[in-house]
Amino acid sequence: MTNPTNHWLNFIGGQWVDADRATEVFDPATGESFATIACADVDDVNLAVEVARACVDSGVLTDCRPAQRAQLMHRIADEIRKIADQGAPLLARENGKTLADAREEFMIAARYFEYYAGMADKIEGRSIPLGADYVDFTYYEPVGISAQIVPWNFPVDICARSLAPALAAGNAVVVKSPEITPLAMTWLATACQRAGLPQGALSMLSGPGRKIGAALVSHPDINQIVFTGSVPTGQSILRAAAENAVPSVMELGGKSAAVVFPDTDMEQLLDSVRWGIFFNAGQVCSAMSRLLVHRDIYDQVVERVAELAQGLRIGAGLDNAELTPLVSAQQQQQVLRICDQAVAQGARLVTGGKAPADRKGYFVEATVFADVTPEMSLFTDEVFGPVIAITPFDDEQQAWELANGTDFGLVAGVFTRDLSRAMRASKALKAGQVFVNEWYAGGIETPFGGLKLSGFGREKGQEALYSYVNTKNVAIRVSQSD
Q: What are the start-end ranges of the E strands in 262-343?
């Protein structure tokens, strides 16, 4: 799908649709507008839901042999790979990330479709013994229409993460794209269209969350909601979902801690810090935003992390920089305010904490705070930027208490060569996923989701697929012959 005018459209029921109004999209490395996208309205939401319902009612994705649905998923994966070289520069420009990371995001999206293609023909029920007079069994039915609201930090990856299992299970999907990074996602719709996805099985709308997102999640014909984003927005969506008793999957961010013991492999730790908090400028829900370090190596770790941060090359993602911009001016100002607040509350600023003077985009220096205490907001509140808070501890029990001492519980990590200690950490850390000696260990195959204010439900892995189906039980009384 070439676009010489740099104006992008919504995708509704197999058709590309313009709108009366358009939304500007900005390059965060320069702060300049470079494209527009059609801004959907409530009528577009209603149309998307209407064609999704027609698709569901037709049975086009459920009456076929599941193996045919699997073949469709494989075709979509192939088409995503074909368009990656066209979509990646667009994603890098609208989001600010490197071209390599943007291309990898398309490869991950393709892998999601491949992975769930392998499960499309394995959604199997079971027989339940109730005695000689009964036959009892279960089977799974698709939920119907899945409304999916995608965040701006990994739009292609996270869209595919929920779209693929929903389609594999036979649902229709209406996607609400993020206002500030909506463009590259449209290539996923193109891939689905080229692969032969039935009309109505996917619609993709761009527009303001307070209007389009709200209309979508409150629509009476929606059967499921999948949301990744902030806690306040998630809470608002859940209130709307409660009106119609709509089941939801919520991934609401985190304030995740890595616990570092004296026997850690220092180079392995530093590599994890680099990816854990400075990748994508720290705009990752499962970022390593807190580092809890045993006092015996505390000063050494603070010094080495500061050296790492100071050595990162700042610049545009398209220039393959090591520290890329934040996604918007609003996000930049929010991170800078949090840094100022941390200093005011007594945290020790080791390096960073400001916008580089020689850059006009939305950059923030790689920032390291030390001596952060549990009373400080930097210890408890999500920053969503390249800012790490380092805190000392004296013993294991204190480490677990500090790690669990926030309202979030998305991921956590431990760095140690002691296998027994690592296993104790896996039990003690209150999080949906625990990393040992490598931040972001795991993959598409491993379930992902949080506890507490980090949300509920699981995405990725086999477990995620069962969020997109309902279990139906059939109990039969068998007449006995005389």
A: 288-294
Give pTM, 2 decimals.
0.95
Select from 255, 293, 277, 219 the least CA-distant residue to 377. Answer: 255
SS3 call for 448: strand
Rounded to whole angstroms, what are the CA distances from 86 to 168, 185, 226, 255, 347?
A: 26, 12, 28, 35, 44
The catalytic residues are 251, 285
Q: Please say whether the dihedral angle defined by the alpha carbons of residues 231, 233, 238 and 239, taken in this order, is positive or negative.
A: positive
pLDDT digits (tens, 9 = 90+) for 131-152: 999 999 999 999 999 999 999 9
Q: How far is CA 322 from CA 99, 275, 278, 353, 410, in A?
A: 11, 10, 8, 17, 26
Q: Which two tokens stand for residue 246?
A: 């709509």
Q: What is the torsion angle, in degrees rounded to the nearest 10, for the CA atoms of residue 257, residue 263, residue 267 and residue 273?
A: 0
In DSSP notation, 206-239 reads ES-IIIIIHHHHT-TT--EEEEES-HHHHHHHHH
Q: pLDDT tens across 97-123, in order? A: 999 999 999 999 999 999 999 999 999
Report the DSSP beta bridge partners of residue 250. 227, 456
Structure tokens at 243: 């009106």
Q: Quote the CA–CA distance of 69 and 82 in Å, as a whole number.
A: 20
Asked whether 192 and 76 are in contact (CB, 8 A), the reply is yes
